[in-house]
Amino acid sequence: MSVNMPELLIEFFSEEIPARMQARAADDLKRLVTEKLAANGLTFASAEAHSTPRRLALVIDGLPERTADVREEKKGPRVGSPEQAVAGFLKSAGLTSLDQCEQRDTGKGVFYFAVAEKKGRATAEVLAEIIPAVMGDFPWPKSMRWGTGTVRWVRPLHSIIALFGGAVLEGSFDLGGAQGKLVFGNSTRGHRFLSPDAFTVTDFADYKAKLRAAHVVLDRAERKAKIKADAEALAAQEGLTLSPDDGLLEEVAGLVEWPVALVGTIDEKFMDVPSEVLITSMRTHQKYFALLDKAGKMAPRFVVVANTVTADGGKAIVAGNERVLRARLSDAKFFWDQDRKTKLEDRVSKLGAITFHAKLGTVAEKVTRVQVLAAEIARAIGADADAATRAALLSKADLVTEVVGEFPEVQGIMGRYYALGEGENPAVAEAIAEHYKPLGPSDSCPTAPVSVAVALADKLDTLVGFFAIDEKPTGSKDPYALRRAALGIIRLILENGLRVNLTQLFKAAHGAYTVGGFAAADGVATDLMAFFADRLKVTLRDQGVRHDLVDAVFALGGEDDLVRLLARVKALQTFVGSEEGANLLAAYKRASNIVRIEEKKDGKAYDQLVDPALLTLAEEKDLYGALSAAGETARPLLAQEDFTGTMAALARLRGPVDAFFDKVTVNAEQADLRANRLRLLSQIRATLNAVADFSRIEG
Prior knowledge:
Helices cover 50% and strands 13% of the residues. Its EC number is 6.1.1.14.
């Protein structure tokens, strides 16, 4: 730490902060403080925020001792202006007399100027004002009052460290009511049980070291790394591996200040319950990590992360957790055993009691629609239509089972287990499990034909229904996850290479609805294609494809075969990335601009056929011949979906186009020559636009 550039250390010490709020709170603390530093003209070298269950901390290095002197000038009215204007200026500048102003000749007259010299302030004074202001503005998702206090904070506050250059800042935070003020200090406490006594600190290095000595690992990333490494080591000792769970790791790191990993045993009598149920129960209620055997199956072991060290090496903690887990898993096993007494098909009627959406009917009605649509899609993609219909019928039945009622995360997955147990076709069972997929960009995408058909039908039904009642996503709001559904459909189609007509599918899904008050099918299909164009840009951008090229292909209209569209876009990207393509694009834009300008000037279009008899120069004859040849070559290639070949045919236009612009004067004096040459330029545009709307391409 530099002598001239002191360090700021802040810590808010409180009761336990909910794990899900800690990382965001650390970021908010850093953002709010640094924004207020900047607003006060204070620069710094680095800022680092930390969070543990009981504290938020921020260290900022390289702050100056004082804020800089500032000279502020404010231009006023012209000398001799009306008294009212002068009075208004003086008031806005905080002055009482024109004697406090300067007069300057600006070259446009003599004006009054108010000049204020603001001396810099001690940084410590500014910080003492910033910290309470930040605390007052803190955006906790949920907060509380306690005792007689009127101030809200996430949990009751106990102390505030505020050190600048090793000295305690003079200041406090008023809790309101009879709670009084929390005066800034230099003391904190360590682990609640292992090192509960208070201690003082002098700077961040001292703070971090003393916390570690007091059984607190301050750095969240370090806690996560330790939890993971210790859990993996325990698993290895058992000949097992840790089941990856980043979300649980993140949460557990927010529950402990001194992580101690311990391994426990699951009673063998629960191991016939599906592993997804066991894992969900353990992670949701107990925050335990699951362990896997060499075959990748769940082992009868778990890892619990304690927040303390015990004399018996954690034996009592493990025993207590095993006891609690037995009670939890007894419930899960009871639900599993009960659910298997009723067939999935017998549960379908109960879906009539669940509302899908007030304007779109019940889940039972959705199932009926999805059956019809899944069968149609299955026939289109060569899947077993009967199996798709059966899977669609049973797809939502597990929603009314006890296990899914307790653990909604395993819907679909449980349907597969029940279906297999009832002797259903394995393809049907798999489709039940996979029909919600893919749930996001990192989720796996179904590839089995029956699964694909049902997954597509389910998502299409949802999208069409909500668009038909005008419940579309707006801005950042998407309460029905329609963007996710569209991205799921795009992935299902592209990753499986499905040649399906989206517009027809939208209309088929629309026709399956029997409720009233719907927008017309054509309008819904048009709106959805525009929506899909936007979603496709997002998907392709992640693959390195430019959004303007997607626009250029969509602008042709009538393209709703996503596989064909993607092939065209990728060929176009390769083409415009080549030297010939880039030059031809520039020539296209030049030709288009000339034609547009002349059409506007003349008040008529030049999109008629070129008259070969009026072509006088070799260059325009060559261009006409090249355009005719390119068009003849490209048409059958486009029909065969050979977009790379099409682009190669267009690339041969570069030489004749360059020669034309070098040698030919478009705006010839003879009116008929001029018109014919403009029609020739228009033909360049038309030839290229058969492949994509080149006017949409940037560059």
